[in-house]
Design goal:
By secondary structure, the chain is mainly α. The chain contains 14 helices and four strands. The strands form two sheets. A two-stranded antiparallel sheet has the order 1-4. A two-stranded antiparallel sheet has the order 2-3. Part of the binding-protein-dependent transport system for D-xylose. Probably responsible for the translocation of the substrate across the membrane.
């Protein structure tokens, strides 16, 4: 007795490639990065010189630190639009303590870190206790912080900028940690690159190799199911917001120390940039899925596009248009991934 077998049909290569992209949305950011590097590398060869790479990586490092922190929060199903104003407010507080209070730089940095953590915990508590959308809660916090900082600095310092901070005690040691640079082939590379790598590696390890990471993934997938499984949702939420606030403080410090000065300038757009970077890197807005390495690649993509447009002499608004297209593609891919995750059988 013979049994007829149906002929095996291999999936077409295009289909296999699409499945891989949908399985790992961060691949879309990698493909986008390759395209913009090729485009601007041919159009503006200076972009690929050591000086051009240093400018790109300098911008990408700050975007990457914020994008990774916001991405980790997105995986947990939350937003934080206050990270940009925490960056500004923490730097201003440090400058006021050092420049006007005549504190040493390290006590001032520790105090601004404590204040930043307090803001993060307030955000987390408001989200947990009220049940309000984190987008609105952190938007309100951002507006309060930004308005207070922009108004208070001129009143306290008598000017919209505080400078000359490098005369503070122990400033050289802080500069070595947060403001050091290395010149390679004519390009000046800042120490923020090492901080970016450390934050990305640490966040990736935290998400995929620890119990806390499992709790974040479970909470982002379904908060109710996570509670039923015993996940401490309130505590996990508070820790996530504390980590995001810490990243904001780090960004403020990395901007303050090299310049030895700070000015009161609006920073809400920066928070939106971090969200864009995280989403382009494969973090779902609905939570439960994301890649810290993908968020880092998203930051690099953003920086290459912005620096390439500037070197090419184009209108900067073209870079915003291009990033808007990339964001839309990332959202569409993320929606498909979310649908697949919901349809996947669960044991």
């Amino acid at each position: 007795m013979s049994v007829d077998r149906l002929p095996f049909r291999a999936e077409p290569p295009r289909r296999r490639l699409l499945d891989r992209v949908l399985a790992r949305p961060s691949l879309a950011a990698v493909l986008g990065l390759a395209v913009v590097v090729l485009l601007f590398g041919l159009r503006v060869p200076d972009l690929l010189t050591p000086a051009g790479l240093a400018a790109v990586l300098d911008s990408a490092a700050l975007l990457g630190i914020g994008g990774v922190a916001v991405g980790l929060l997105l995986v947990g199903g939350h937003f934080d639009l206050s990270i940009g104003t925490v960056t500004l407010a923490s730097a201003v507080l440090t400058a006021v303590l050092v420049g006007l209070g005549e504190w040493g730089i390290w006590p001032a940095l520790l105090t601004s870190l404590a204040a930043s953590l307090a803001v993060g915990l307030v955000n987390g508590l408001l989200v947990v206790r009220t049940g309000l959308p984190s987008f609105l809660v952190t938007l309100a916090t951002a507006l309060v912080l930004q308005g207070t900082t922009l108004s208070a600095l001129p009143l306290i310092a008598g000017a919209p900028r505080i400078s000359g901070l490098d005369a503070a005690p122990d400033w050289p040691s802080a500069s070595a940690v947060f403001g050091a640079t290395a010149e390679v082939g004519g390009g000046v590379f800042p120490v923020s690159l090492l901080w970016w790598l450390a934050v990305t590696a640490g966040a990736g390890w935290l998400l995929w190799r620890t119990r806390f990471g499992n709790e974040v993934l479970a909470m982002g997938g379904s908060r109710r199911a996570a509670r039923e499984l015993g996940v401490p949702v309130p505590r996990t939420t508070l820790v996530l917001y504390a980590l995001t606030a810490t990243a904001g403080w780090l960004l403020g410090t990395l901007a303050l120390v090299p310049a030895a000065s700070v000015g009161a300038t609006p920073s809400l757009v920066t928070a939106i940039d971090f969200v864009v970077v995280a989403v382009i890197g494969g973090c779902l807005l609905t939570g439960g899925f994301g890649s810290m390495a993908g968020a880092a690649v998203g930051a690099l993509l953003y920086a290459v596009a912005r620096e390439g447009v500037e070197l090419a002499g184009w209108d900067q608004r073209w870079s915003q248009a291009a990033l808007g297209v990339l964001l839309l593609v990332a959202l569409l891919v993320g929606g498909t991934v979310r649908g697949r995750l919901r349809a996947a059988p669960r044991s």
